Amino acid sequence: MATTFLQDAARTLAAEAVAAIESQTSAEVVVAVRRAASDYAHTDARLGAAVAFVMLLVLLFIPQEVHLFAFPPVVLLSYAGGALGSRLLPSLRRALTSRKLQESCVRTAALAAFTELGVSHTSRRTGILVFVSLLERRVEVVTDHGVDPSLMGAEWQDALTQLSAALATSPAPEPFFQALRRLQAPLARALPRLEDDVNELPDMPGAVA
Description:
Order of helices and strands: HEHHHHEEHHH
Oligomer: single chain
Largest sheet: 3 strands, mixed
Structural class: mainly alpha
Number of helices: 8
Number of strands: 3
Shape: elongated
Radius of gyration: 22 Å
Mean pLDDT: 92
Distance between the termini: 23 Å
Strand content: 5-15%
């Protein structure tokens, strides 16, 4: 069975990639994986309402006579079925949620995790959060004030592009963590590892939320 981001084997891959990056740079890299950046309850509600409306039309226009007392429970069950279907089928929920909203939710969740996980508390302010949200298939990289992307140039941007592409095109974690290692070279050039450098943040990702 293929490894997923939610398994311990993937957490080990993440820790190995982070350790490899930090062996050459003073930056502190933290990986966080979340099932979704938001509950997207409004998407579930919209699908439930659409299914309920279609069922109402069916009840109104089918040739067979339907007692009025049947309308409320059938419509309510249809709503519940549509909402549950959206919740249980990530691909459907993703398709029904606008890309702009997904991007906004992932960015907001990443900024919150940046603080919650202590990435903003490193001594030299060189923390970097690599935030993975599985439902949206998006990765958001948040850097602290001591990390200047402009100093890393096109190589940094190319590495981020490869990271996003790996997550978008494959549900397996192996290509993603291989792409993650591409951050090492630009970080090592802009923020080389110092003699007194200590590992301030854990390499192993925390519990998945």
